[in-house]
Amino acid sequence: MSVLLDPHSLANRPLLDGIQGNILKSHGRPHTANVFIHCRPNHVDEAKTWLHSLVEGEDALIQSGYAQLRSNLLWKENQAIDTGLFACIHISAAGYRYLFGDGKNTELADKPFQRGMKASAALLNDPDPESWESGFQAEIHFMLLLAYTHKDLLEASVDNVNRAIQSFADVTTIAWGCALKNAEGAGIEHFGYVDGISQPLFFEDEWETYKKNNNIKDEARDIKDEKDKDTIIKFDPRAAKELVLVKDPLSPKDPNAWGSYFVFRKLEQNVKGFKQEEAILAGILGFREEDDKERAGAMLVGRAEDGSPIELDKKPGLINSALLNNFAYQSGNNAKCPFHGHTRKTNPRVGPVEEGVQVANNRVMARRGIPYGNRTDDPNDGNIYNKPTDKVGLLFMSYQASIKDQFEFVQTQANDTQEGIDPVIGQGDRSAKGVFCPEWGLTEPTKKASFAQFVNLKGGEYFFAPSMSFLKNIHKG
Ligand code: HEM
């Protein structure tokens, strides 16, 4: 039986009405503001009233999962339409303690969530929280995510929120996000690589689009003809909702009350440093030919700048590369993609195989990150020296059922030096060398090289995105 949800089925309506948007499907708007909020002591009732006002009454900002799907559909049908402001709220363990005292917090059982991100600093090799940006050093209770197509209207909405909370809370910091696109219109991160290609899929219509984009013929598993070998499912992104959703324990009577654990990390990127080191690596690997121009970077990330997986070709430019995700790594073989390449480290694509198909493993998260910071240069112009060294980066965000088994597991793997540290996000011993195979497709000869760290954490927190019924009833208890 398919684990996927039919977004049009009436049977799924209560589930989608019961969760906040952005969890099962990205809100998709290009301008965002993460507003981090600290409540002053002795204003619990006001804080609860405000949380309730986000979902009921004329000023309600938050969209349910169902309402968000409707607005995504409208946008698809008519991109001229204004689908309006999107909002969703996230509460930290400190926030739950503020609202209810110590008792209820423990019902949200995820241990890293309960302790907060600062307590995980040693485990994750994060910089000392005392060195984080001051707005993240503060005790954060809530994070309201606002998103809009229009930047000016987003700014006006943030002003309104500021006014609404000023009697009981302070904004500790605002992280502004802004989508970055390459010349083909695909979303990229600041190093210039297409991002957001590989995601778990929860809906039937997403799967149909995915099959088309990846030229997958569903029944093709038995195809014997060599020419059709690329139409077989090699990596299956289909996922059950439980990969990211857990029952909201603070709304126990409602069978449709689901929430999701949420990770926020502000990751600064030193783009110039990364590009310089990428060029040095190309030298170490002896790359001179035009064909190898992008290969050093693609070996670090796992994909070329246009999204082409290095496991499939030594050059960029594969058809539909910005969408191409139907590939697996050859087990035990690093001749094409190094074991420590970012996409391989964070999702090695090995796991249980059902009917010959490798199903999405249970470590991946629904990634919802967006770049931050302004650029005056073209990220893909091939010029190293006009690239920024700071003030730009990724607002990493992810939804998962378990912060311990998903985000923290993946970050810990990225830090692991045994097969080489993840050159993009690894934190720890950066002198540790990883193995590279300079001849694409051949395991010999090999070269070993280290790679310095160019992604640095500026602060973050763990949250829970509560159910709609929790928010609708919060002012009562
Ligand atoms: C500034 C920091 C980061 C940059 C520049 C970055 C960049 C990228 C890029 C370019 C891709 C390939 C596009 C795609 O397959 O979707 C990717 C994939 C991915 N990243 Fe990151 N990333 C960053 C942070 C993180 C963090 C903190 C994690 C988790 C701890 C993470 C986990 C993943 C995962 C799971 C994938 C998909 C791998 C796959 O399924 O093939 N990334 N990242």
Automatic annotation (TrEMBL):
GO molecular function term, any single one: metal ion binding
Keyword Iron: yes
SUPFAM superfamilies named among the record's database cross-references: Dimeric alpha+beta barrel
Keywords: Heme, Iron, Metal-binding, Oxidoreductase, Peroxidase, Signal
Domain DyP dimeric alpha+beta barrel: 89-167
PROSITE patterns in the cross-refs: DYP_PEROXIDASE
Entry superkingdom: Bacteria
DNA-binding found in the keyword field: no
Alphabetical list of InterPro entries matching this protein: Dimeric_a/b-barrel, DyP_N, Dyp_perox_C, Dyp_peroxidase
GO cellular component labels: cytosol
Name listed for the protein in its UniProt record: Dyp-type peroxidase family
